[in-house]
Design a protein that fits this description.
Length: 354
C-alpha cells in the first residue's frame, strides 16, 4: 500500500453559518471535521507541493461555495480534473439513488466521482476500475483537515455512513490473490502527531481503519521509518480491532451502513507494539515507545482521508509477472463523516502500557 505523510489542505472557504461565533462549553462534544455537505469539492492534481497535495488552480463548474474537502488521487493512470463534469445521464444510474446530481469522469470512465442527493443529504461515490501496483496501488480518497486541535487523552469517536457500491474482482492466478497483486481495500485514515513538551522526539502516524478488503488475510500492518538520530519517526499502522464493524467485499445495492469507531483504542493498540524502524542508511532501529508517547495528552489528530486502494497491474521493478494479473473494480459511497471530541470524557490509557 502507498502511504503519504502530509498535512491536508486548509479550507478555502467556509459558510457564514459555520464560521459564526457561538458559545462552546468546555464539556460540550466538539465536531472536528468540516461537514461534507457542499458538492463543490477541491481536486488534487496527483502531485505534491511543499509536502502537501497539490490542488488544481481551477474550480469545478458547480455553483456555490468551495468545500473544504479534497478529492485526492494518488498513482492513477488518468487524473480526474475539476473540468471533467459530465452530463449526469452519462452516468450509470444507481439502483437506489438513480442518476447523480453531479458526475465527474475521465475519458475512459475508469475513474469517476458521483454526487447524489438522498433525502436532502449528499452522498459522494468514488469509483475506480483497475490500478497500478508500484510502491503501492492506486488510491482515491476524500480528505479533510481537523478544524480544532484535539488531544487523545479524551475520547474521540469517528463515524460515517459507508457502503461498497461496486466490489468486483477477478484473478488471473491463485498467486495474484494471495500475494496482493490484485487487491481492493476500503479504509478511513487519520494522521496523528506526537510532539511532547521535552522535544525529545517527534512521531507522525498514519492510522488506517480497514472497512473491507478483497484479501483473504487479516491482521495488523506496521511500518516505521526514522532519521539517523532516532528522534523523528514516521509510522503507518493498519488494524482491525476485535468487534469493529466490517463491510463484506461484495457489491451492495442497499442503504449505506453507519459505522462507528473510538480512535483512542487504535492508538492504545499501537503503543503496545515494539517496532523495527528503518533509518536513511537502511539500518534497523528498535522503537520502544517512550513514556511521553504513552501520555495521550501529547498526541493530536490532524487530518482524515476516506476511500480505497486498488491494483490489478503489477509494475514493480523486478516482478516475475509484469503487467495485468487480473481485474478489480471498486465503488464506495460516503456520507455524514463525523469526528467527535468528547470533551470531559477522559480516556483511560493505563491498559495501553506494556
Amino acid at each position: 500500500m502507498q502511504y503519504f505523510s502530509f498535512s491536508l489542505p486548509v479550507a478555502a472557504l467556509c459558510l457564514a453559518i459555520l464560521c459564526a461565533p457561538h458559545e462552546v462549553r468546555a464539556s460540550d462534544p466538539q465536531e472536528l471535521l468540516d461537514p461534507l455537505t457542499i458538492p463543490k469539492l477541491q481536486f488534487h492534481t496527483g502531485g505534491v507541493v511543499q509536502n502537501k497535495p497539490q490542488i488544481f488552480g481551477v474550480e469545478t463548474p458547480i455553483a456555490g461555495p468551495i468545500s473544504p474537502w479534497l478529492f485526492t488521487q494518488w498513482s492513477v493512470s488518468e487524473i480526474l480534473s475539476p473540468d471533467m463534469l459530465r452530463e449526469n445521464k452519462a452516468a450509470v444510474p444507481d439502483p437506489r439513488l438513480g442518476l447523480p446530481a453531479y458526475y465527474f469522469a475521465t475519458s475512459s470512465k475508469a475513474l469517476s466521482l458521483s454526487i447524489y442527493r438522498d433525502a436532502g443529504e449528499l452522498v459522494f461515490e468514488l469509483h475506480k476500475e483497475g490500478g497500478e501496483l508500484r510502491g503501492g496501488g492506486s488510491d482515491v480518497f476524500l480528505s479533510d483537515e481537523i478544524r480544532h486541535p484535539a488531544s487523545l487523552d479524551e475520547k474521540i469517536v469517528y463515524s460515517a455512513d459507508l457502503k461498497l457500491s461496486k466490489a468486483n474482482v477477478r484473478y488471473a492466478s491463485a498467486d495474484a490473490r494471495t500475494t496482493g497483486e490484485v487487491l481492493g481495500q476500503a479504509l478511513s485514515g487519520f494522521s496523528f502527531l506526537a510532539t511532547p513538551p521535552s522535544g525529545s522526539f517527534k512521531m507522525s502516524v498514519l492510522l488506517q481503519i480497514s472497512h473491507s478488503t478483497s484479501s483473504p488475510f487479516k491482521g495488523p500492518y506496521l511500518a516505521c521509518q526514522t532519521d539517523n538520530e532516532g528522534r523523528v519517526f514516521s509510522i503507518v499502522y493498519g488494524q482491525e480491532l476485535p468487534g469493529s464493524p466490517l463491510l463484506p467485499f461484495v457489491t451492495d445495492d442497499g442503504e449505506l451502513h453507519h459505522l462507528e469507531f473510538t480512535l483512542n483504542d487504535y492508538l492504545c493498540d499501537l503503543v503496545k507494539h515494539r517496532l523495527s524502524c528503518r533509518d536513511p542508511s537502511g539500518s534497523s532501529r528498535q522503537l520502544n515507545f517512550p513514556d511521553e508517547a504513552l501520555n495521550f495528552t501529547n498526541w493530536h489528530v490532524q487530518g482524515i482521508y476516506i476511500g480505497f486502494e486498488v491494483n490489478d497491474t503489477d509494475l514493480r521493478a523486478g516482478t516475475s509477472t509484469p503487467g495485468k494479473v487480473g481485474a478489480i473494480e471498486m465503488g464506495m459511497q460516503i456520507a455524514n463523516p463525523k469526528l467527535i471530541h468528547q470533551n470531559g470524557q477522559p480516556y483511560d490509557s493505563s491498559s495501553c502500557h506494556r
